[in-house]
Amino acid sequence: MADPAIRHHILTVVVENKPGVLSRVAGLFTRRGFNIFSLAVSPTDDDRFSRMTIVVDAESAPLEQVTKQLNKLINVIKITELTPPGAVERELMLTTVKATPEARSQITELAAIFEARIVDVGFDSITIMVAGDPAHLDAFADLVRPFGIVELQRTGRIALPKLARQPVKLRAVRASGGA
Question: Is the whole model's pTM more than 0.70, yes or no?
């Protein structure tokens, strides 16, 4: 039975980097009535393939059904489900915030605390770039909202499996006797 705390399935799907593949994958989700929460696509280190990170609403999409349907698509090479605890997730957000002369220092301090970068400055607003896990971006947006968000855009999640944390066993090296 599914963990009630998990609200989203995170799937990384390696596909052939060919025209129409994104459309076929999105169409599959549409036909089945699955709600895509986030979708990010980019080429991998091998130009022949792209990686899609698809975050799907767990209630709208039974995982087994999603993966079976994806496996039927000819351009799909590999599907991996990542659980939130087993994944490194990141997202990028650009937000333009109203910045009166009195508020600029507070907004700049918030950006520094969140390791965000100010990427554009206007007469009465500032555009800030922040990257991190989705909760980090949510927290930043919540804190700058009182200043007035003019525009906000998020990239969608990307994710990779966390690396193994097993300690490496070292073997003893004997000092060789001199001649």
Answer: yes
